[in-house]
Amino acid sequence: MSYIKAAELLPKDLVELIQNYIDGEYIYIPKKEKNKKAWGANTTTKADLADRNMSIYEKYSNGHSVKELADEFYLSQKSIQRIILNIKKKYC
Fold first, then answer.
1. What does pTM read for this prediction?
2. 52 vs 49: CA distance, rounded Å
3. Residue 70 near residue 76 (C-beta atoms within 8 A)
4. How much is the average pLDDT of 31-57?
5. Distant-in-sequence, close-in-space partners of 27: CB < 8 Å, separation ≥ 6
6. pLDDT confidence band for 11 (50 / 70 / 90)
7. Rounded Cα distance, 80 and 57, in Å
């Protein structure tokens, strides 16, 4: 996220009005609902995590222990258990 100087973008009277509420601090103005994108829409992270999780499930199905998978994927055993359970619910 980049910052834009309000004084360069907004009319002076609007900047002064905003200063009555927040003076010299950062403020986040959210996107309009129609402009929002779903999480992972701009990157491959969502697909990468789905692939990783399926790999975890396949290895578990082939006999790897939860501890082995936690060590291999640098996750907690609880996270591995959650991933396995979610995939079982979704596909089985």
1. 0.61
2. 5
3. yes
4. 90
5. 18
6. very high
7. 9
